[in-house]
Amino acid sequence: MIKEGIDSLVVCGGDGSLTGADVFRSEWPSHVSELRSAGEISGEQAEQYAHLKIVGLVGSIDNDMCMTDMTIGAPTALSRICESIDNINTTAISHSRAFVVEVMGRHCGWLALLSGVSTGADFIFIPESPPNADTWEDELCENIQKVRATTSKLKPSILTRATA
After folding, report:
1. Catalytic site residues?
2. 92-134 pLDDT, tens per residue?
3. Could you tell me which residues come within 8 angstroms of residue 91 by beta carbon, excluding any fewer than 6 positions away?
4. If we measure between CA atoms, which residue out of 127, 124, 59, 121 comes closest to residue 92?
5. pLDDT (tens digit, 9 = 90+) per residue, 45-82?
6. Are 124 and 131 within 8 A, CB to CB?
7. pTM over the 0.70 mark
């Protein structure tokens, strides 16, 4: 980087990318010292590139960065999920079937919540509000039975869930 005249980085990513960038930034001075000691860069270069500037842009489909309205990638991921659920809905209606849809989300249920609300899911499981362990399975089964017992005018059962 020094030989190419690079003294700044723009890093776009999620937790791993931004954490890695911060580690790189904190280790930069020791790398510069090692290069200088090994004679790979001059004293002038070591002085000029002693500090590495990094700008971090949050790119996370989870949309889980505080103090931001929307992270890079979140709207696209939500759009793709809703498109997929719309396509699944056609099959669910024509075959009177229930589908479980898992989406990314690790510790954040933003995608599951928004896609579930947008597409009319019967159940939405998110890490921030775990389901009642005693009743959700019975409620889901009852809804499936209702859908199967009536005409296709009722919406199919869709469950969205955030997962790592």
Report:
1. 62
2. 878 777 788 999 887 889 999 999 999 988 888 898 888 777 7
3. 97, 99
4. 121
5. 999 999 999 999 989 888 888 888 889 999 999 999 99
6. no
7. no
